[in-house]
Design goal:
The chain is α/β, with parallel strands linked by helices. The chain has one domain: Rossmann fold (3-Layer(aba) Sandwich), CATH 3.40.50. It is built from five helices and five strands. A five-stranded parallel beta sheet has the order 2-1-3-4-5, sandwiched between helices. Helix 2 runs parallel beside helix 3. The longest helix has 19 residues. It is globular and about 35 Å long. The two termini are about 20 Å apart. The model has no long low-confidence stretch (mean pLDDT about 90).
């Protein structure tokens, strides 16, 4: 069984390495993208199983990346977990109930919070794709 591929779109290389270390221990393959534009290009090329998406990036913010992903019929079904320092309740409500992201994780997160979120979203995706 091939490893689950996750693209982490994040402008902080230390966060990408942290995510790679945490999820790598569970057997996930994490591919980092330094910013929104690079992330979109990488997702189009890789077609990952899951996307971890930061909201606040200098080149292309996360909501714009998310909008472009959802406009592409081939990429729209990919699950997205927003990972952000924007932890206000309104941001969470917008993400989960208005934009319909698959999950919303606030920074700083614990390794347990990250792995539980990824596991939960992937399990939900498997359940819906298997019928």
């Amino acid at each position: 069984m091939p490893a689950v591929r996750i693209v982490c779109i994040e402008d902080d290389p230390q966060i990408i390495e942290l995510v790679r270390t945490i999820l790598g221990r569970k057997g996930y393959q994490v591919i980092g993208a330094a910013g929104g534009q690079e992330g979109l290009t990488l997702v189009q090329a890789q077609r990952p199983d899951l996307i971890l998406l930061d909201l606040m990036m200098p080149d292309l913010d996360g909501w714009e990346v998310y909008r472009r992903l959802k406009e592409d019929p081939l990429l729209a079904p990919l699950p997205v977990i927003v990972v952000t320092a924007r932890a206000q309740d309104i941001d969470r409500v917008l993400g989960l109930h208005v934009a319909h992201v698959d999950d919303y994780l606030s920074k700083p997160f614990t390794p347990k919070q990250l792995t539980e979120s990824v596991d939960r979203v992937l399990a939900r995706r498997r359940a819906t794709s298997s019928g």
